Amino acid sequence: MTMPIKLISTDFDGTLYAESEHPPVPPELQQLLGDLQRAGAVWVINTGRDLSSVLEGVARARLSVWPDYLVTVEREIHRREGNSYVPVHPWNVLCADSHRELFARIEPDVPRLVEWVNGRFSASIYRDPWSPFCVVAESNADMDAIQNRLSAYSGGVPGLSVMRNDVYARFCHASYNKGTALAEIARLAQATPEQTLAAGDHMNDLPMLSTHVAGRLVAPDNAVAAVKETVRRQNGYVSHQPWGHGVARGLEHHLGLTPG
Ligand SMILES: [Mg+2]
Questions:
Q1: How far, in Å, from the CA of 42 to the mean position of ligand 1?
Q2: Helix 27-38 crosses helix 243-255 at what angle (to 10 degrees)?
Q3: Largest CA distance in the chain
Q4: In terms of domains, do 133 and 181 share one?
Q5: What is the pTM of this model?
Q6: Cα of 168 to ligand 1 centre, how many Å?
Q7: Model pLDDT for residues 210-234, shown as the tens digit of each residue
Q8: Label partner for 156 (CA 20 to 30 A): which of 2, 62, 195, 226?
């Protein structure tokens, strides 16, 4: 029998993992992911967190299963080798080079953007190793307005894109996101879009929630409206259950299992 799903990509916060839940990743979902891995499927945690932060989250969740790949900061790929995760080349090197070149080009404009945000909103602005301009707004409404301004700016800069997750946003290269990283892992794992499932809950998941990358889509009940709409429009599964419970229902749906 051919397995219908060969590659599974789950966002971490709000999709796989719920801080408020005990345990944060439902045991039934861990069981399902483990069964699929034993049957030959490849599982990816595809997150905006950096490597140390996602590994901390995985440890905190005391998972009984370990992902085969981690996508971190929505762009870098790490493959599991034994008990550790190693960078995937040449992807990560090309990714770092592209960002270095892009960020050098926009550096002169950063002070003007900082001034624009500071003049209108009470928001935290900083730079980190991943972007010369990161912003945390006080509300999603503030971030909507800030995102509009950043998108208008990025529209005039070839290769520049805005990565948004809730009240947080940063700049990134348009060629690197959860979707392109998942497509690269699909190439390495020799999985077609029809054999690929993606599950997510927020704006930064939209690039992987596309049938060009993953033919089988899942959104839990807590997903934002734009994500639910995107998943529904492409014939995906929107669960009435939140977080990992919703992902478990989505996996059952796409595997043709009757939900219990
Ligand atoms: Mg999320």
A1: 20
A2: 40
A3: 61
A4: no
A5: 0.95
A6: 12
A7: 999 999 999 999 999 999 999 999 9
A8: 226
